[in-house]
Amino acid sequence: MARLPKATPGSRRISPRMPSGPSEEAFLASYDPTKFERLSVAVDVALLALDPSIGFMSLLVRRDAHPAKGAWSLPGTFVRPRESLDEAAKRVLRDKAETEDVYVEQLYTFGALDRDPRTRVISVAYYALIQRELMLQLVTPPTVDVGRVHEPFAIRIRGSQVELAFDHGEMLQTAILRVRGKLDYSPIGYELLGDRFTLFELQQLHETILGRKLNKDSFRRRMLASGQIEPTGELKERAVVLGGSAPATMELGRPAELYRAAPPPRPG
Amino acid sequence: MARLPKATPGSRRISPRMPSGPSEEAFLASYDPTKFERLSVAVDVALLALDPSIGFMSLLVRRDAHPAKGAWSLPGTFVRPRESLDEAAKRVLRDKAETEDVYVEQLYTFGALDRDPRTRVISVAYYALIQRELMLQLVTPPTVDVGRVHEPFAIRIRGSQVELAFDHGEMLQTAILRVRGKLDYSPIGYELLGDRFTLFELQQLHETILGRKLNKDSFRRRMLASGQIEPTGELKERAVVLGGSAPATMELGRPAELYRAAPPPRPG
DNA sequence: ATAATAGTGTCTCTCAGACACTATACC
DNA sequence: GGTATAGTGTCTGAGAGACACTATTAT
């Protein structure tokens, strides 16, 4: 779990003039947790990857139980009493996407009254970012599939447009807007590429996230000056063609240098 | 409630090939909401105002019951089963701050295991912005008082530093960072001023939020070109001094023109 | 008049965008 | 050689920062 706000140890400072009445220890020993009505709390995760020619891709699962049985939804789970929200999100990624050590961040909490037909369910939405190649390996039917999100936020699966269960379409839209908004002021996006990438690949990533073309010269200068990336000295290798004519997508021209994400600056 | 993500009607599209088994209606009629363990869900609100000479101010309440009895905390409440999260936040502002029609936005959801000693409580934190004058009217002891937040995030009440109950100090810190982050790309901040203000007052507000001095000329140009404000043609009136010498804080020099927040651009 | 603040005009520096040019690959 | 992509050098226009100057008030 990365880049969540720092947790500070909870402190319960008591006033010097202790008010009269039973002690806090006695209060806690006799506390009845059912005094206030409790709610179901769920976590749903939008696992995102990016393809330059498609746009955003999100992991979707097909619901095999009521409600909305048969519909597509974001992977999610109910939060257990002994796990934190972040742990629940990680558990979803582990169980339904076989994915660990990805960038995960809390997105927004959805609490409309009628968002789940069963009962009142509060859902804390998370989003996570992985590389396109890892996303494509996750397709393990029948419970897991990859949805392709075209803008403006039409969700397609293998070409045909679908509606997600519950309010998961809104969650997905919010996640994409969050990623786009963070791109300008945050070194986000490197989780979506491999550990080595060319400047043009990075530019294509930014163009896909922002939904518009960027100026090549300016993008190069800005990225090199930002300190977010560093050159490796290596050059991108070409696919070796074993005889026959080259495929239509064969790369041409001078090979590009490979860069990697620079380590964050020392806070000292 | 303003500028929350748009709610879209929840849709539960069912696959054409309906899986076998009981119908969704029959499932919902027999659903047992206690099948998954439920959690307590609370809402806490950081109501913020800004004073040019102090910095951020936040409404704090003194806890009159266990746990953390006697400690200062953000106003909050448990979420009722028949109200949305936004409604709960508005109820907190109405009941504990006698405030309505303010800018309110969801902040972050805190779900650590031990954040409340009673039982497992998930807290959805909100923040709200009001004018300094309205904040100062809210001081109605003994349950309501105004805390003054100095940076870096030391919380003072009438000069002496305090620690807030639970993880409310972290919530307050997160709220201030959110307001600061939104200042650059969003027309935020006008909720913190009256309906008429001078350019210098607006600059002081931005300087307080950002924690650094801004260039006067550049700030004027940027604000006037942004379309976020419009001139009223009125001039700021001076306090009338009824005899005697002028107070030390008397305003001097040419009176400034008053501006107001411009209406948002027509989406057509 | 002097002091103090509001507001304007203009210069410079920085950076994004555009374009020309060189470098290195495959054909 | 031609063509396509990678990378560099330089010009230009927009905007931020700095500074000088004018405008309007109170004392």
Characteristics of this structure?
nine-stranded mixed sheet, homodimer, globular, alpha+beta, two-stranded antiparallel ribbon, DNA-binding, disordered N terminus, 11 strands, 268 residues
Can you lay out the helices and strands and say which pair or pack?
Two copies of one chain form a homodimer.
Chain A: H1 24-29, E1 40-51, E2 55-62, E3 72-73, E4 76-78, H2 85-97, E5 103-110, E6 121-129, H3 132-137, E7 144-150, E8 154-157, E9 160-162, H4 168-182, H5 199-210, H6 216-226, E10 229-235, E11 257-261
Chain B binds a DNA duplex (27 and 27 nucleotides) through helix 6.
3D structure, described in words:
With 268 residues, the first copy, chain A, is an alpha+beta fold. Chain A has helices at 24-29, 85-97, 132-137, 168-182, 199-210, 216-226; strands at residues 40-51, 55-62, 72-73, 76-78, 103-110, 121-129, 144-150, 154-157, 160-162, 229-235, 257-261. In chain A, the strands form 2 sheets. In chain A, strands 1, 2, 3, 4, 5, 6, 7, 8 and 9 form a 9-stranded mixed beta sheet that branches. The first copy, chain A, has a two-stranded antiparallel ribbon with strand order 10-11. In chain A, strand 7 and strand 8 (154-157) form a beta hairpin. The longest helix of chain A has 15 residues, at 168-182. Chain A is globular and about 75 Å long. Chain A starts with 23 loop residues before the first helix and ends in a 7-residue tail after the last strand. Chains A and B meet through helix 1, strand 5 and helix 4 of A and helix 1, strand 5 and helix 4 of B. Chain B binds a DNA duplex (27 and 27 nucleotides) through residues 198-200, 215-218, 220-222, 225, 238, 246, 250-257.
